[in-house]
Design goal:
There is one protein chain. The protein contains 4 helices and 2 strands. By secondary structure, the chain is mostly helical. It has one domain (about 1-130). Strands 1-2 form a two-stranded antiparallel ribbon. A hairpin with a 5-residue loop joins strand 1 (about 25) and strand 2. Helix 3 (about 75-95) runs antiparallel to helix 4. The longest helix has about 35 residues, at about 35-70. The radius of gyration is 17 Å and the shape is elongated. The model has no long low-confidence stretch (mean pLDDT about 90).
Length: about 130
């Protein structure tokens, strides 16, 4: 379930980016408009994100704390923890920031980190074979 939710969160965010930046609809007057599916992908991303935060919380007491105390995969686990905290905070901030300038920078930092997060997750997961 963890892998499905993590991949679903990443995939829905990536597809939203494609629709947001590359898939546009031109109306009868020649104006660019957002594709109608863009909103749906953003909602799907939010749903997966809530599930991801819940799963991370459920992993905290057993997996994260026990692994940290044992010194297992600290560099990748610590990096993954930081990435998840940043994505959670910046994702919430995107809903509540009032300034368009701050929202623009936060959005950029959020989706760049989000795209890289899958790499951090895979590296952390694959390092278990080396322990």
């Amino acid at each position: 379930m963890l892998h499905s939710v993590a991949f679903g969160t990443w995939l829905t965010g990536a597809v939203w980016l494609v629709f947001h930046y590359f898939v546009r609809v031109v109306d009868a007057f020649g104006f660019d408009n957002p594709h109608p599916q863009q909103q749906g992908w953003l909602i799907a991303h939010a749903v997966f994100s809530f599930a991801a935060v819940w799963l991370f919380g459920s992993l905290w007491s057993d997996h994260v704390v026990r692994g940290w105390k044992a010194g297992v995969r600290k560099p990748t686990g610590g990096t993954l923890f930081g990435v998840l905290v940043w994505l959670t905070i910046s994702g919430c901030a995107l809903y509540y920031l009032g300034s368009d300038a701050w929202r623009s920078w936060t959005s950029l930092a959020h989706w760049i980190t989000g795209l890289v997060a899958i790499v951090v997750f895979v590296v952390h997961f694959r390092n278990k074979r080396r322990d």
